[in-house]
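Journal club side-thread
Mid-discussion, someone asked how the predicted structure for our own chain would compare to the paper's figures. Pasting it here so we can look after the session.
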Amino acid sequence: MLCLGVSGGLDKVFEFRPELPSTFLHDGAAVLVRDGRVIAAVEEERLNRVKHSNKFPSNSIQYCLDAAGVRLSDVDRIAFYATEAYCNAMLERLFVSQPSDAIPMNARLLLRTMLAQEFNTDVDPSRVSFVSHHQAHAVSAFAMSGFEQSLVLAIDGGGEFLSGLVAIGSGTEVNQLESFPESNSLGLFYLETIRYLGYSLFDEYKVMGLAPYGDPAPYRKLFERFYELSENGGYRLYLDRIGPALVRNIQVRRKGMPFTQQHRDVSASLQEALERIVFHIVRHYREATGMKRLCLAGGVAHNCTVNGKLLYSGLFEEIFVQPAAHDAGCALGAALMASDEVGRPAPRERLKEVYWGPDLGTDRAVEQELAAWAGHLDVERSDDVAGRAADWMANGAVIGWVQGRSEFGPRALGNRSILADPRPAANKDRINAMVKKREGYRPFAPSVLEEDAREYFDLPAGTGEFPFMNFVVGVRDAKRGLLGAITHVDGTARLQTVSRKSNPAYWRLIDEFKKRTGIPVLLNTSFNNNAEPIVDSVADAVATFLTTELDALVVGPFLVKKRAATLEDWTSLAVSLPPYASLYRVRAHTARDRQETVCEIRTTFSGGGGVRISDSVFDLLMRIKGEAVLRDLFNSMTLDQAEREVLVKELRSLWEQRRVRLHPPSRATRVQNDCDRMAEPA
């Protein structure tokens, strides 16, 4: 039996609709299970290249179907990650904000309509189901834990007017004990606070990384006014008190401003308050239920610091955190719930790896794609890419490493990673500046051979496998100076242990680095820049490689370095607009008493905004139908050498921001160009 779980938004990537609650309808994904076992899963952002995509996950669904070699009509059940009643309420809210006959007020009808439009097939209403959002979170964790029984805690920003639940998992059932209203949302508690630190939705992990630089004591009493603990694991939040109190007590930070010690101390106080509330909840239910194991899911479960402290607390014998704990993981939970409903529950096995996404393809296909960038890349095939890559890193290189199927979830776990020597502390600053273009305080994670983990990291007794970067653990005192690039200011690291069985290619790479340096550890961070999600395809990897200062790239069996591309090399590329981008020429105030006509590229996704562009680039992009080769566009505009260089520079900047795409011409474009040239008079 095939069951498809779906999370995400209700509009297509090229459409724009009014915002629904910002804590819902994001992180779209699709997961396909056969008889309770995952066979394919991917987040929509990996394919449509929109961070935290709030669009309908049509690409993800298509990938899952292709991976299984089936059509949508072959799927027995399609499950959406929220209840039908809640979805209908959201549609009514959308209709009130912008009445439209194009949006049916029936969620089941809307979902079936979108599936029919995207996949050219009618879906019988009986094959569509809607599941409880937080129950999907809970099931996604317990069903993957391998536990026969456990306490389950699912906590996030919100969904279905709730923000979490506590449940007991037993056998194949997850039974709710308690739920938390949205007014008690720990996710919103964190989000409301970080607004005054210059951050917003999806930036919570940045503040978690900032907290160790602060002292919680100066603002501890202030934060104690924002929440109240009560008996039986209960608590109450006072979200409305946060803003006024912080405005009166700190200098509010705007985005881009430097951090002060105030901001660091507020981050530490926020983290401490979150930990205190979570521990209050789980201590009570640990005692009340006698459960010795704990499963965690929901966006707050990505707070690896809380997870690490729970791990060291000894409250539970084992803790399992679902690696895609955010809303994309609800697609997994929805698929598993649907599979259980049709009599095919998930087997009771511990999740070991999540390499469920698209594969790179055959070596021949990879080689052809790299060869299309001949003016920009030097490519060499090697039978020992692990050894060669290890040599590069041992000599100071920062590399992109792309192998096999991509990971499901927000962590790069060795198949779509940026890697470097973990020893020089300067590597952290270098990568933050040259690749990520992000705050210099942000830490990087270590990947360590599973066999060597305990030598370098202080792990609680009985633990040894940490494959998903879900826990912050202590770096051993004697190793902190050695591992300067991955040891955070408080002596911790967000650990990934690498199993030879689960990922032999990545294990071998680390082992080769160990042979050269004596260190069985690599610095590992996600392969992306600050403008896009983690790379998925070969094309994504090349684009990020060429728009960052990475030293080298390894894709499958190919070693890749950059060439000094000429203007001719750049103009031989095609340019196109991503499906989420649109061009606008509008009258706008450029000063209080002056209006001008300005040109912009705007995006359809939340927070994308608009970027000003020159009239020349606007005119160039308006000439494109699908895609066009830059050389042909320049020739049609009769531009001289200097003008071409200026336009290429601006287009490269827009490409780096992912507002346009530069890429080798498609076969259809090459054929059309050949036909056009043949049709020209002699």
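Post-session note: The longest helix spans residues 261-289.
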